[in-house]
Structure formats: C-alpha cells, structure tokens
Specification:
CATH class of the largest domain: Alpha Beta
CATH architecture of the largest domain: 3-Layer(aba) Sandwich
CATH superfamily of the largest domain: SPOUT methyltransferase, trefoil knot domain
Number of domains: 2
Helix content: 25-40%
Strand content: 25-35%
Largest sheet: 6 strands, parallel
Radius of gyration: 20 Å
Number of helices: 6
Structural class: alpha/beta
Strand order of the largest sheet: 8-7-6-10-9-11
Length: about 240
Amino acid sequence: MKLRRIYLQMQLSVAAEIQLEGAQAHYLARVLRLRAGHNLEVFNGDGNNYSAEILRVSKKALSLKIKQCSVGIPASKIEINLVQALTRGERLDYSLQKATELGVNTIQLLLTERVELHLEEKRLQRRMQHWQQVIISACEQSGRSDVPVLSEPLLLADYLAIKPACERLVLDPQAQQGVSGIALSSGSVDLLIGPEGGFTEVELLQFAAENVQAMRIGPRTLRSETAGPAAIAIIQQYYGDLN
C-alpha cells in the first residue's frame, strides 16, 4: 500500500500526539479508510518528513503519533521564482501544480495588459485559498517537504519597479536565444510567463529596458499553462537537479 502524505499546518515534533478533525480526518478515515495502526507521512513545510502512526479513529476525529523525522528532498542548485500572469479556468491550476512538482521556489502572480481574469477582493481571496491548496496537493503528491510561497497578483509595472535580487528571464517565442545562450551569474532566477495571447510589444520593450533577458524554448508557441512548466524543466535540466 502506498504511504499516504498529508500537509499539516502546525508544529511537528517526534513523539507528539496530534488530533485531526474536520476535512482532513474525514478524508483519511472515510475516503482512504485508514484505521488505527496504519502509517502515513506528514509534513508542515519546514523541509522535513515526519512518519506517523494512526492511534485512534472516531466518528469525527483521528489521532496520530509522530514517530520519526527525516530530511526531505534537498533543494535544487538553482532557485526558480515563477512570475505567472493570471489565466482563466483550470489553466492556472495546471501551471501551479506542475511548477510545484518541478521544484519552483516561489510563485508571484502577475497582472498584464492581456490578462482577462479580473477578481474583486473577496473572490480573489477565495481563489488564493484554492490556488494554495493546489500547491499543497502537488507537494503531497510529489514528495516535496517545502511549500512554495504564493503571492497575490502584482501589476506588471509594480513588479518591474522592484529592484531585482536575481536574474530575470521572460519567455518569448520570438526571442533569438534559448536557455543555452543565457548566462546566469547567480543561483536564482525570476521566470516571467505571459497570459493567453502573450505579452504585448510594449511590455516586451519594457522588459528589455529593465534588462530582463528574453528566452525561447523551441520553434513552437506554447500555451501559457504549458510554457511555465516546460521552461522550469529546461532550467532545472541545465542548472538544477534534473540533470
């Protein structure tokens, strides 16, 4: 039986007993049908994995005990910060899920001229909670013990006004160079991915003025939800832990 992994937003330590209620207890006990004596793996984003044993299962709660702590998957040699323009429907879910699986460190959502998704504050907060859960689920599935930081959408002008702490790349199918022509002088990179329809010519000129390097990843124009994961995988292959 596959060892189940779940994320717990709490302090974890060896020998601690934890009681779960609500949705998590229901999922483990009613959906997965786990019982006393079953083992599972839990994590809280601190980079460690914690093996746990279920002690008791009741109608509304589940108790488990932390038995052991081990270091999770080591960080990649390169820190990749995804700067992703908002997209509609499940497209952004896919981008966030695959970026997390491929080892992205942080995710900054972006508002650009061609973004068609406009959210008022209450709906934005609901979507942020949903997107955070997409990221957590991807961590549970992929074996990650750290959780990428997700930041609320920024206007492109506000993002560009921030003094860069690392190299910045923008994916552009018309760019003259691929990843092999990019010289990364640090162990960290911001990767900018446009919305459906891509960045405008004016936005691309703004990137050039701010020394954001343009990069292409082949002869085909990719959808927004495909471009980010594909570029992350290639950067990880050249500079990170996929090689």
